[in-house]
Structures are given as structure tokens and as C-alpha cells.
Amino acid sequence: MSNNFVAPRFFAQAIPPYTEGMRVGLLGGSFNPPHQAHRAISQFALKRLQLDRVWWLVTPGNPLKENGNLHELGARMQAARDVASDSRIEVSCLESVIRTRYTIDTINTLRRRLSGLRFVWIMGADNLAQFHRWQHWRRIADQVPIAVIDRPPQSFRALASPAAQALARYRLPESEAALLADRPAPAWVFLTGLKLNLSSTGLRNPDGSWKGPK
Fold first, then answer.
1. Better pLDDT: 154 or 41
2. CATH code, domain carrying 71
3. Nearest residue to 1 (alpha-carbon basis) of 80, 60, 50, 52
4. How far apart are CA 51 and CA 161, in angstroms?
5. Is residue 9 assigned to a domain?
6. What confidence tens digit (pLDDT) does each residue in 93-113 have?
7. Domain ranges, residue 129
């Protein structure tokens, strides 16, 4: 459960630099470890959605995953910065600061404290397939536009999922992706064309340690 009060200075330290009116994509995850697909998805979203920045929100732990092999937050943060290697991609520990593991709390906090920014939540098709299992997923969809990045072979499963079906009437044509950040929620788009299929799971050894670069 999130803390109702976070000292402004701690919040400010967890938020990347920004200017009013900025279009910001939010990519949440454990980043255990971060990898080139995270970077590729972010750069793809920056271009297709006409975003100014993408913020990687490194979670203390995913409520839907086993976190026994989760590396220390500081290590994941530093590794994420090393992988991002792009001035438009910023890494944040906001969820640790506001003491939550739930996306709904993160979005509520950002919208309340940074109302001058236009946020888009970014997720892979594999996450859309299980979005209906997220806490208060309908409230998430009601508060922030969502960009779903296709990750074959997850396409059919994702678009046939309960959440995709429930939100079908709010889906924008892919040709209007650049308008998503300006649309009131609920609104979402399914972006195709990124051919990169890495996962953090595949980059971990059985004991939870990270595999070295190949």
C-alpha cells in the first residue's frame, strides 16, 4: 500500500528533470536485468508516439511475479542507466519512494503532483494479455492513455485478452499513434513493427544471477 505522504524533497529527487507540457512515456518493470529490448521499446515509443521523454520506473517488486531472485534496487537502477544510454530515457525509483508496487498508485501520484505533464503508459503485448489481473486495471485505463508494443508471438493472445476486449471501443488506429498523448483516457493504441524479442527472464541464470553479455 502506498504512503499517503511523501516529503516534497524526496519526491523531487525521484523525478527526472522535466518542463511543463512535456509528453512523457512511462515504462514500469523490475528491470531484472534491464536489456536492449527495454531500450528499443523506449526509442520506438519516442518516435511513434512523438514523446519528449520515457521514464523507466524501476519497481521494488512485481506483485504478479516471484521476487525471490530480485536484485537490489540500486543495482537494477545503475544497470538500467547503463543500458538506456540515451538522454531521452530517464531512470526513476519513484515506486520505492512512494512505497508501492502497484501501477495505480504510481499514476495517481504522478497525475496529482505533475498535472502539467502528459503521460502515456507503455507496456508490451505480454502485459496486455494479463492486464485484467492488475490491481484496479480499469481505473488505470481511465486515467492515462496506454501504448501497447507488439511482441510476437503474443499478438493474438494480447488482443483477445479480457482487457483488450473491454477497451476495444477506445482503441485508436495505429496511424493516429502520435496523437495518443493528447487524447483523454481511456485511449490506447497497439503498435506493430518492432522486431526484437528479448526478455529479462531469458537473461537470468537459474540462481537468479544475471547472464553476462554474449
1. 41
2. 3.40.50.620
3. 60
4. 27
5. no
6. 999 999 888 999 999 999 999
7. 24-197
